[in-house]
Design brief:
about 15% strand, 3 domains, 21 strands, Nucleotidyltransferase, domain 5, 5-stranded mixed sheet, 9-stranded mixed sheet, DHBP synthase, alpha/beta
Length: about 625
């Protein structure tokens, strides 16, 4: 049985194909169109999935969309009615789109499928599970657990903004839901907006900024109390009520009432390119602390309702890896599994799986060797011919290594010498994290590496941390963590033995001074609070990346590399060898490895294309 899952028309459109329950392929549309968070119908992602699976569109048993558009439309109408006459401008903006496109989504989907060869006579089933059911399915069905609590938290689906479910066998039972306009995801996005970052893409920047808050400052507790007293009402089960006097997202065109926020917090809304001040950092830490508290309360309620020993997480808030690390440390559950494409992209996969197990009543096979996501390496791959064609197009110079071990030893030497290396191997990752298939790599022992990567290669804010990739069997020697974190979705501390003391006046230092103070023997992956967003690398899922890190360890004694996504600010992660070469030539990267091909920047022809990535890509 072949089922195609689709998410589209909000942000992070994606497609996923399953065949008799096995995940065959999954990819976001942005990787093909080169438009970050592309919301459009994922025609190219669908074409890839079908081609990779050797399936024609007319052989599908069902196409499954990740939410119920009519239920979402009902929520929209009821919300405007409840807030009337407020929201008239927003209503007049939204209604034409809904009436023209989303009210007739079945017809639109069939039209788009028709462009891909769909024969209307085949009458393929078109199914619409609820948004949070798609999220829950995306986390539970690939997990290694036979029975688990499922917690989904995001901005909003149709009505639900969070849900607690029980997954057992092939069944998912929804036990409790939080309803719009009350939403932890929208609360966090409101602070993202107020602090000058872009909603639906800048939340991870807020998470990275939060540790720069002065934890000893009374302002932190004051901000937290203001949030709890003025903005929300927090219940013991983790449910929240948001005071809509302070928010504008329900019926307006902005996230918050800026004047009221500026009044209660005593700071002005930050614009995207404004300098970051200590007050911004402190407010970021306050909302991060409140978010972690709410997530923990929701998890405790999930444990109480289900009695399950294990937890699965999905929804955009599940990408908050700091909260995930705190949740794991809490011991509420024996173990947790987090969907690597936790946001709307993962909804495409969950929709297909929900149809297979719930609608078609097919039994679930739990993987005996970890989860069923194959390391999240579910996207397109490439051949040597693809690399050669790209080199011919750009007259690129390269060395091709017949022996991969020789290549890894050479790349390890380059990394140890302080070079930055683009690394492209095998199938592309599904989800927002680069996991060693489309990555930019560096030496974590190099104190200048974070600054070099941020300012000369990624062209992004200097405060943002980088993640370590560590050989899975050596993780506990370098981090205060003994489990696995293959999807870079858990934050845990650097091992005590690697830490360096900070000066007594450290908390009073400015952001820049804190940033460049060497805090451990792995300074380029140690965040301001001695934490790190860990990726454990496993030979079973990514043998080439594993072998590279092993070669680096043999040379240096360090089984850790700096790993960041292969893109510049505002650009989607690279997909093809050509994407990789173009990004390589437009940045300060020193070397590029694609398959067995090594490119030295010094040996490349002059780059004659206009270096206009800032105009080509909308900044995130």
């Amino acid at each position: 049985m072949k089922i195609l899952g689709v998410s589209a028309f909000y942000h992070d459109a994606a497609a996923a194909l399953i065949d008799d329950g096995e995940i065959v392929a999954a990819a976001q549309e942005e990787r093909f169109t080169r438009k970050k968070h592309d919301p459009s119908f994922p025609s190219r992602a669908i074409s890839f999935c079908l081609e990779y699976g050797g399936v024609s569109i007319n052989e599908l048993d069902a196409v499954v969309f990740y939410d119920k558009p009519l239920l979402k439309f009902e929520r929209l109408l009821e919300t405007y009615y409840a807030f009337a006459p407020k929201g008239l401008r927003s209503f007049l903006t939204a209604m034409p789109v809904w009436l023209k496109e989303k009210m007739f989504l079945k017809r639109l989907i069939r039209q788009e499928l028709g462009k891909l060869g769909y024969d209307k006579k085949k009458k393929i089933k078109l199914l619409f599970p609820e948004h949070h059911l798609s999220h829950a399915a995306s986390a539970f069905y690939p997990s290694p657990f036979q029975k688990a609590a499922i917690l989904t938290i995001d901005g909003v689906g149709e009505w639900a903004t969070a849900s607690i479910c029980l997954g057992e066998g092939r069944n998912i039972t929804i036990l409790k839901e939080l309803k719009f306009p009350h939403s932890l995801g929208l609360l966090y996005s409101a602070f993202t907006y107020f602090l000058g970052f872009r909603v639906n893409s800048g939340e991870y920047k807020l998470m990275g900024l939060a540790p720069y808050g002065n934890a000893c400052s009374p302002d932190i507790k004051r901000y937290e109390q203001l949030i709890l007293d003025e903005l929300i009402n927090l219940k013991k089960d983790g449910s929240i009520w948001l005071n809509q006097d302070y928010f504008d997202y329900a019926a307006g065109l902005k996230m918050v009432n800026e004047a009221k926020w500026e009044l209660i917090f005593g700071i002005k809304k930050r614009e995207p390119e404004d300098a970051l001040e200590q007050a911004h950092c402190d407010l970021g830490l306050a909302i991060q602390n409140v978010t972690e508290k709410i997530v923990i309360l929701m998890a405790r309620e999930a444990r109480r309702l289900t009695g399950a020993d294990y937890l699965c997480l999905a929804g955009g808030v599940a990408l908050n890896c700091v909260a995930n690390g705190k949740l794991q440390k809490s011991g509420i559950f024996k173990d947790i599994f987090i969907q690597p494409a936790a946001g709307d992209a993962g909804g495409a996969l969950g929709a297909a799986q929900a149809a297979y197990h719930i609608y078609f009543e097919q039994e679930r096979k739990v993987s005996r060797s970890g989860d069923a996501l194959k390391g999240s390496y579910l996207g397109p791959t490439f051949s040597d011919l693809d690399v050669v064609l790209a080199t011919k197009k750009y007259k690129a110079g390269y060395t091709c290594f017949e022996d991969f071990d020789t290549l890894t030893r050479r790349v390890a030497e380059l990394l140890a010498a302080g070079n930055v290396v683009g690394w492209v191997q095998g199938r592309m990752e599904f989800g927002p994290r680069a996991l060693g298939a489309r990555s930019i790599l560096g030496d974590p022992r190099n104190a200048a590496m974070q600054k070099k990567l941020n300012l000369k290669i990624k062209y992004r804010e200097s405060f943002r941390p980088f993640a370590p990739s560590v050989l899975a069997d050596e993780c506990a020697d370098f981090f205060d963590f003994e489990g696995i974190s293959p999807y870079m979705l858990l934050v845990h501390p650097i091992a005590e033995r690697l830490r360096k003391a900070v000066p007594a006046d450290y908390q009073s230092l400015g952001l820049r001074e804190k940033l460049y103070f060497e805090r451990s023997e792995l300074p380029s992956v140690t965040h301001i609070d001695y934490s790190a967003r860990i990726q454990t690398v496993h030979k079973s899922t990514n043998p080439r990346y594993y072998d590279l890190i092993r070669a680096f360890k043999e040379l240096t004694g360090c089984p850790v590399l700096v790993n960041t996504s292969f893109n510049v600010r505002g650009e989607p992660i690279v997909c093809t060898p050509e994407d990789a070469y173009r990004c390589f030539m437009r940045t300060g990267m020193d070397y590029l490895v694609v398959g067995n091909f090594l490119f030295d920047k010094k040996l490349q022809p002059d780059w004659i294309e206009k270096d206009n990535w800032k105009e080509e890509f909308v900044l995130d």
